[in-house]
Amino acid sequence: MSDAPILLPVEEARARILGLCTPLATEWVPGDDALGRALAEDVLARRTLPPWDNSAMDGYAVQARDLAGPLPVRLVVGETVFAGRRPTREVVPGTCARIMTGAPLPLGADAVVMRERTRPVPAAPHDAPDAVEILEAVGPGNFIRPRGEDAKEGDLLLRRGTPLGIPELGLLWAQGQGTVPVPRRPRVAVLSTGDELCRVDEPPGDGIVDINAPALALAVRRAGGVPTLLGIARDTRQAVQEALARTEGFDVVLTSAGVSVGDHDFVKDALEALGVEQRFWRVAIKPGKPLVVGQRGSTLFMGLPGNPTSSLVTFELFVRPALRRLLGHADVEPPRVAGRLEGQLSKAPGLAHYVRVTATWRAGELWAKPLGTQTSGALRSAAAATHLLHFPREISSLTDGSHVELLPLSWVA
Ligand code: AMP
Ligand code: MG
Regarding beta strands 73-81 and 111-114, do their DSSP bridges make them parallel or antiparallel, or are they unpaired? Predict the structure, then answer.
């Protein structure tokens, strides 16, 4: 029997993972906890905004047809309208109202002339009405923000799945909506495996510090999840199994290391022993080939490779999209931008490479320079990276200046 591994293309692996995820139950949270999360429901406007035609400038509310004759035109100022007050007089031919930005337009007025295009009329004899000279003719609608420009009652204001940035939250606040429906945050367990690992505050002896668990926990938090560290499981089937048995109630379980073909790689066995159904193992990717994915009930298990860079790359390409799906985002694919390769790259066909690059904007384009070291064992190859350059599976060389796909990284400071 052939021992050749079946390697899933990256896109198919991601599609399969996303197929295992659906948005979590809805909770209502205050706006500041909703930032960066996605709406769980369509939101209809319940207020028409602005509620009245209002001025976009400090100036004078006029009847545009009063300005048709030779300039300047002298108008009598009936009143001054401030934001937050109501006008009390109709603007009739020959008159105007002094008006401030945001103040409701008086009845009869159909345009605003900005104050800079007017000239005050010197103080007139006592009792004479206040007057102004208008220096330019404007058409109807000039500097008027029409009622309902931002929202009309009943409009679909924001669609389900829309990520809530600051302006989106502003739109909701303007509607009087202080809490927002969003899928709850995924609870994510993070487990490191390996006999060689110790905590950062322990003397390493012959081992190394566990980087993956704290790094993945930060990546989870940045992606909107709630991480829980399960510690370090030693390299025995029993230890890994015992640690993984403590994952009841989590939406996602992330392990690192022990998923390859080494004699001490027990993660796959432990998952199987716990009744986790393996969905796939191994992806046509470098770094990150040994990724294993399984499911039990509604819990998604993702066994990431042990090399710290590999675990972070697979987080970006597979875990983050899964978390975004659970968080209800309409758009879950890793973001991509167009760039050019500075230098050249070559490889054997068969695996897609995700090359750590530093990309800088030059002469109207994003130029991506591969970092000096690309081994997955060295975390140096991830530090300073701003993007991953996608070097497609079937291609074996990219020449200087090639047009490439770049994935902005969520790890960067
Ligand atoms: P493994 O998949 O267990 O063969 O691990 C691959 C490589 O990643 C080995 O060199 C491990 O020492 C290293 N490694 C595994 N887990 C961690 C971790 N949590 N932090 C840092 N390095 C790790
Ligand atoms: Mg190991």
Answer: unpaired
Whether the CB of 228 sits within 6 Å of ligand 1: no
Q: How does DSSP assign 111-154, residue by residue?
A: EEEEGGGEEEPP-PSTTPPPEEEE-S---TTTTEE-TTSSB-TT
Nearest protein CA to atom 16 of ligand 1, as residue: 306
User: From the centroid of its chain, how far is CA 130?
Assistant: 53
Q: What is the pLDDT of residue 210?
A: 97
User: 316 in ligand 1 pocket by Cβ < 6 Å?
Assistant: no
DSSP 265-287: --HHHHHHHTTPEEEEE-BSEES
Tokens of 390: 């996608």
User: For the chain, what is the mean pLDDT?
Assistant: 95
Position 2 pLDDT exceeds 60: no
* C-alpha of residue 167 to centroid of ligand 1, in Å: 42
Q: Which ligand is nearest to the CA of 256?
A: 1
In angstroms, the first-to-last Cα distance of the chain is 48
Find the radius of gyration of the CA atoms of the chain: 31
Return the best residue to mutate from 216, 230, 237, 256 for the ligand 1 pocket (most ligand atoms within 8 A of CB): 256
- CB atoms under 10 Å from CB of 35, counted, come to 16
Lowest mean pLDDT among 127-131, 253-257, 358-362: 127-131
Question: Ligand 1, closest atom to CA 257?
Answer: 2
| Cβ-based burial of 124 (10 A; exposed 0-12, middle 13-18, buried ≥19) | exposed
What band does 377 get if pLDDT is binned at 50, 70 and 90? confident
Structure tokens at 295: 């499911």
How deeply is 375 buried, as exposed, middle or buried, from its count of CB atoms within 10 A (0-12, 13-18, 19+)?
exposed
4 CB-near residues (< 8 Å, 6+ apart) = none
Tell me which H or E stretch contains 72. Answer: none
DSSP 3-state of 354: strand
Residue identified by tokens 């404007």 is 138
Enumerate the H helices of 44-202 as residue ranges: 166-174
